[in-house]
Design a protein that fits this description.
Oligomer: single chain
Number of strands: 7
Structural class: alpha/beta
Strand content: 15-25%
Shape: globular
Order of helices and strands: HHEHEHEHHEHEHEHHE
CATH superfamily: Response regulator
Largest sheet: 7 strands, mixed
CATH topology: Rossmann fold
Number of domains: 1
């Protein structure tokens, strides 16, 4: 699992704070970083489908957090000796068109980038992944609860707990400028065994042992 301190923050990347340890100004908080989980998600997905040689990334080019995710995945795909295809989707209708490309380009496994645009359309994405029988990995556990294959990402309830802690400290007089931006320290793997069976995939016991939640 990634270690705390290796994660870059969207807060710092986009100039929202001066640094993670000393934010400055009136902004601090908790970040649910996504780009640095992409390599881990690829590795976990390849444990399920080790023969997959062509990997797809469903990404929203309109979102500034997409580029770091693409860069991270490109490096990871090269290290695994696989081929990568980027499937762009940023408006209504793009998602279904992208899944048609999955079939045309013989993509064998799919990473869905972290993006609120995709979060809002998770039912559509999960349904299309099932229709095209493509093993897919997501960053939010809600996709897996909706029938997706697997997810790996920050533990959101833990982030909310930290948000509550910070709210209390600020109400008691602490200055946001002096409160370090909190990065994730807990990450969760969720696997949907029912979906895996529907795709003809046997989930290794070693992967199940690492899962924080298994959906039967």
């Amino acid at each position: 699992m990634p270690k705390p301190g290796t994660w870059r923050s969207n807060f710092a990347m986009f100039g929202l704070v001066a640094s993670l340890n000393r934010p400055g100004g009136n902004v601090t908080g908790i970040t649910l970083v996504a780009q640095e989980t992409v390599a881990m998600r690829l590795g976990l997905l390849l444990e399920l489908v080790p023969a997959a040689g062509v990997i797809g990334l469903l990404a929203n080019p309109s979102n500034p957090i997409t580029k770091p995710q693409v860069t991270e995945l490109e490096t990871a795909v090269r290290s695994f000796g696989r081929e990568l295809h980027i499937l762009n989707a940023s408006s209504e209708g793009d998602i279904e068109k992208s899944f048609a490309v999955v079939q045309q380009q013989h993509i064998q496994a799919l990473i869905v980038a972290a993006d609120s645009f995709f979060d809002d359309r998770r039912a559509e994405i999960v349904a299309l992944a099932a229709r095209y029988r493509i093993p897919a990995s997501y960053v939010r556990r809600e996709f897996v609860a909706a029938g997706g294959l697997m997810s790996y990402g920050p533990d959101v309830p833990d982030a909310f707990r930290w948000a509550g802690v910070y709210t209390g400290r600020i109400l008691r007089g602490d200055m946001p400028a002096n409160l370090p931006v909190q990065e994730p320290t807990k990450f969760e793997l969720v696997v949907n065994v029912k979906t895996a069976k529907a795709l003809g995939i046997t989930v290794p016991s070693s992967l199940l042992a690492r899962a924080g939640k298994v959906i039967e």
